[in-house]
Model the fold of this input.
Amino acid sequence: MTVLLVLLIAAPLSGSEFLNPETRALQDDPFENPGYLWVDRGAALWSQAGCARCHAPSEVVASSFPRYDETSAALIDLSGRINRCRALDDAPTWGYEEEPLLALTAFLLNRERGTPTEPALDPRAEPFRQAGEAFFRQRRGQLDLSCAHCHDALAGMRLRGERISQGQVNGFPTYRLLWGTLASTHRMFRWCNEAVRSEPFPPGSPEYVNLEYFLRHRGRGLRIETPAVRR
Done:
């Protein structure tokens, strides 16, 4: 029984597997899922913001981000890539939790909804994946807990009536019922850091981009669910 439990925890499982039936039904209904409000706005912004002048949506493999960027010799995530395009077009960049950026990332990832997560494979990105994994396993904060303590060792168990998920990121940007809005992976990372009473990093920081890259690989093969719904 112990061996079986370890195998079940080790297999990648989407956060939707840990939802109650009502929340799962909300996520799966495109007419009820509130995250689709951002997807629709992102579809309009694609043309309004000038993205369509250079790219067709089908040309952007959103699920391949974060990936290695030669210009910065580091990882760049989807939000960072959108902001770089805007800077090249002399347009103001957006903050990670600003509505337009959430809308565009949700629109692009939603186009791949149902397809397996395929993070970019690049030997140059391996040190950043390793840094992300080290972050995931490092104890931090006054509670002296790592991401792995909850999302590896305790996945499937209950905390205050909620089942602890594996912390997969295949549904982000995600509509979180607790916040009443769509949120990026980096907002969730900050919330988790604060939950263990640790100083969070800024959205878009290398620490969070590396962590997201590691988590994309950790959940490799899980299907894209953007926009997911979580408690």
